[in-house]
Amino acid sequence: MTELVRYAFEDLGASRIEAFTDEENAASRAVCQSVGMQLEGVMRSERITPTGVLRNTCIYAAVRGGA
């Protein structure tokens, strides 16, 4: 994932990268944090599973230059 972030910023010229992950998906959240993304917020009861359970979604982001 680190290479993907580098590619987005350096080769594609992106100024911002976002990732959306289920609040309970610890592995995905750890990956986001490991590449320097910061938690920007949690959308509560943002989606519903096929079994009818409401789930929260975490929004992670990284910006060019780390600002």
UniProtKB/TrEMBL annotation:
Task: Identify the Gene3D superfamilies for this entry.
Answer: 3.40.630.30
Tell me which GO cellular component terms the UniProt record holds.
cytoplasm
* Residue ranges annotated for the N-acetyltransferase domain, each copy included: 3-38
> One Pfam annotation, family name?
Acetyltransf_3
Which PANTHER family does the entry mention? FAMILY ACETYLTRANSFERASE, PUTATIVE (AFU_ORTHOLOGUE AFUA_7G00850)-RELATED, RIBOSOMAL-PROTEIN-SERINE ACETYLTRANSFERASE
Question: What is the source species?
Answer: Hydrogenophaga taeniospiralis CCUG 15921
The transmembrane segments are none
- Name assigned to this protein: N-acetyltransferase GCN5
What are the recorded GO MF terms, alphabetically?
protein N-terminal-serine acetyltransferase activity; protein-N-terminal-alanine acetyltransferase activity
